[in-house]
Amino acid sequence: MLTVNKQHYNQEFFHLISAIKKTLDKNHEVLLFKTYGDHDQILQLLLNEGFITSFQKYTGFVIIRVKAIEKTNINHKRFQFIELTHRVGRKNYTISLKDLLSLQRREGGAAYYVLNTDKGLLTSFAAIENQVGGQLLLKIS
Questions:
Q1: DSSP secondary structure string, 4-17?
Q2: pTM of the full structure
């Protein structure tokens, strides 16, 4: 029987998310991030969901390209707001499937949540589809 363990996200993970948010706040399109760990899973999730256009890994750093702001196309996916729902040193915010459904209903589908589940990192929509809850990491709207 194969089991997947939830990954522990350290302060560097939250530093990466904060750096992406600052890049977006400054309307920059490229982020050069010095890294000490493996962020493939979160970057791949953001790429698959269409929030970033690409990322390239090199030894010791990663280059992340975020979506350019297009004022003419308001329907394209891009971060408008990114918020950390869990901070290092605070209690983990674990959410059940029932509470996740309620949260998504309340948001009206306008927000994505990123959860650390037993099946890996998933968006709230994928977690609902897979019938799992987990630890809330991010809110992207």
A1: -PPPPP-HHHHHHH
A2: 0.72
Contact 123, 113 (CB under 8 A): yes
**DSSP tag of 19:** H
Helices (H) and strands (E) in the chain, counts: 4, 8
Distances, alpha carbon 52 to alpha carbons 49, 62, 98, 113, 126, in Å: 8, 13, 29, 16, 18
E strand or H helix that includes residue 86: none
pLDDT tens digit sequence for 37-77: 778 888 998 888 888 889 999 988 999 998 765 554 444 45
CATH architecture of the domain covering 11-140: 2-Layer Sandwich (3.30)
Query: Could you report the per-residue pLDDT of 99-120, keeping only the tens digit for each?
Result: 888 888 887 777 788 888 888 8
